[in-house]
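Schema walkthrough. Field components (list of strings):
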Amino acid sequence: MRLTPEEEAMLRGDAGPALRRAMEIVVALGRIYGAEDLVAVAHAQVAGVSYKNLGQAGLEFLQQWAAEGARVRVPTTLNPAGMDLAQWRALGVSAEFARQQGLVIDAYLAMGIAPTLTCAPYAVGHRPRRGEHLAWSESSAVSFANSLLGARTNREGGPSALAAALTGRTPRSGLHLDQARRATHLVEVRCPLSSEADFGALGYLVGRRVRNGVPYFRFLGPTPDLSLGPGSAGEELLRGLGAALAASGAVALYHVEGVTPEAGEEGILPAAAERVTVADLAEGYAALNGPLDAVDMVTIGCPHASLAQLAEIARQVAGQRLRAALWVTTARAIRDEAAALGHVAAIEAAGGRVVADTCMVVAPVEELGLRALATNSAKAAFYAPSHSGVSARFGALAQCLDAARTGRWGG
Amino acid sequence: MGQTLRGRVIRAGRASGWALVSAEPVGFLGGVDPETGIVVEAGHPLAGECVAGRVLVFPTGKGSTVGSYTLYRLARAGLAPAAIVNAESEPIVAVGAIISDIPMVDQIEIGQLRTGDWVELDGEVLVVERPGLL
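Field assembly_structure (string):
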């Protein structure tokens, strides 16, 4: 692999042990992936923040790296933690977990990383430009950046994204190259798509089928307006598709005909792409719905809820009394904006909560004593049974809020 | 004089130890107990074996990315393998070896190694001595 003199110096340890170790990781991964050289990244998103997933070993590693003087060289943001840093006690998180979680965040802060604690760095932190190289390690954000913005990032692991943040480099391989951005599958969708849950169910089905491929979607049935742009309805619907594709499969990039930035490029849909037809979403809904009708908790915000979603939820629950717990998870900065507009107060008056810094995929949900949760996120429904031992119900937002009112799925 | 094999360096270093060979991939998170170094994955060919101080030989890694940190935890407890030899490395074990200072090579034909071989690793060079075989 070709390295620049500056990269060689980092690898030799001229700038200290922390940077040497980081460059060792980047170079070793480059060799494994067959990269010819490294590429400079504009931004890094680091996963591996929740103490639930890191454990004591991960914490000790981060502390050692910080103590060796590790400091990021490019703007870097953090994935959600295992708890809301302000409301953790009220949300049932143990003091021991909170203490360890705080130490994890302290280690990242010492490295110069912004504690955004959100899986939506494109909304809070850094909205990438087309063609920009990134080292992102949150699978739904990777999908968003590649697919909806035309930026370039592989699915980095937690330590590899951190190594990229410290060196400012990542191997020039995979989705950093044009070749890997071409479609492997042509997915013709013949059924109508309306809610975010429909797009999630579709993502679940297709992710399972194409695994780590690059699907090119052709929507043949009626769909809502999918025009893209910051905060647009199309962006909200498609990010749910991408999150599900990345959860049931390992899809890091997809194209939507007539919608996403690279879908119209010459050669993006090779003749050899495998054809897949989706005529019905029922199988996806069936796989993501567990057997329990009683719902203890409704959770919205996977990926983290936008301001528009918070406004919509506030409108739908205003003046009501919810029977099941309702958690809407979002970024701290979005929660603050929603609070200023009165949305947080409206949701709390109905008995719900707007939870920042964390989400149901990384929180220690098993400590909360839940049996069944309902969600409009295919990704959350997919992970709930395996990560948290909780049965899931999955449907559109209105159906989820109905369950919050009655405590039961389907009335 | 033993047999000499050459691989590709993932983490440079020198180490020696008795080989512990698995024909199946190894996953560290949930697969190896970080407090004892014993392989605990049910049905795994190495189940019940302790990886501490061994030259651990397996085709490739598998499982959760958090497995990198399990290797780190083993190393902190003095229970890490002396070295890791893979047929084809993947990121989880590679990153784990780097952050834990465990010498590692890949692109080795691991079928040539058996549990109980004495293995000396120096950079990309692996020297294998088989007791009783002259």
